[in-house]
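Look over this entry.
=====
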Amino acid sequence: MYKYLIILLLPFLLVSCEIATKVEAGNPKPEISMNENPWPEIRNKRISELLPVALKDAGVDAWMIVCRENNNDPLADHIGGENAGGTAAFLFYQLNGEVSSIVFSPEGEATALAEMEIHDRVVPVERGKSALEEAVSFIKENQLNTLAINSSKDNSLADGLSYTQRADLEELIKGSDVRLVSSEEVVYNWLSIKLPEEVEIMKKAAALTAAWQQEAYSSVIPGETTDADVARFLKNKMAAHEVKDGWHPDQNPNVNSGKDRGHSHATDKIIQRGDVIQTDFGIKVHDRWVTDIQRFAYVLKEGETTAPADILYYWESAKKGNRVAMQAMWPGVKGIDVDRAQRKVMEEAGSAYVMWSTGHPVGYVAHDVGPNLGGSQATHVRPDSDKLLKEGMTFAFDGFHSWKLPNGDLKTISVEEMVVITKDGAEYLTPPQEELILIK
């Protein structure tokens, strides 16, 4: 067994060596100032530059987002509707080849909304009158007959229109030529692309995410430190730098030195010598942009100066899968084809089955809008796996290798990194993990 592993490892060992256990103090950590909020300016640019393209590519005449107080549409703050009190109708529409915006807003919020200078027109709606009714009158008058609304079975970010709001809208368009369609394509085309300014912010956030994980590993004392202790270390870093969780706080970070637990919380399991530790961690900066990165470490047994041959093989196999997936990521490539390239490496390396997709979009949320990098082994392929990668899309993606522990449980190394798609292929947002971190 070990002779076989050593032979397989030779190509990897020629190009790699392991890094020291304790992370050196003074590693550069790019700081992100929380005193300045770049979102308002970026939002305006996204609306003026990216939304017209998204609207035209979706082939609709108009897109309506209905905003209200408390139970608001999930896209409200992408269009300036985060401060809605009474019901307001935000409308983006095409007329004579030009894309414009108009908002029918309760008069109590209309002045402040107009001063934000996001939209071409803000029409105050008198108390006692309906913003939705006035918006529909505008739609009929301008023959905006294909109307996209936020109602979707597959995309929760495009599903913000409530049942009662839709019922009201259907009643208002009854007998007209206006046809309601899902805004899925508009939302997909718009949110899946990030501006260069956004990518730069995500690069800084990704660098922090990776650096903090290495720092967390440097605090581990075998036989004493628990998975939950490592998670608390990272929570404290987040608090000190005033950033938020990349996903649900109870499961971020997910630190696991035992068998596979899937999407889970860190437990009080004590980290032991011989353990492989997985940390899946993401932060949210400016209450907007999210990271999702994993880092792996091995806890040396007494007398060991390097990880054993089998663990090194699993690590290098997973890393190779990640690199092959990255090489497959180009504009015009389908998400399913990226997954297929990574699965081929898994098969050749003898990995056990892994149910997860190779990757997913990341940006405004951990699992963002965009092509799914999966489906090549599935009996039913989700539509997003057949979508094409485009410049400006950002992804978190893995290389996998899974094996059976002595007790029969599965353990998986999932080398997860973040990239942006450029005209020249994929580009890492922060340098990837090249070597398995060793803990003495």
In short: Residues 1-28 have pLDDT under 50 and may be disordered. The longest strand covers residues 410-422.
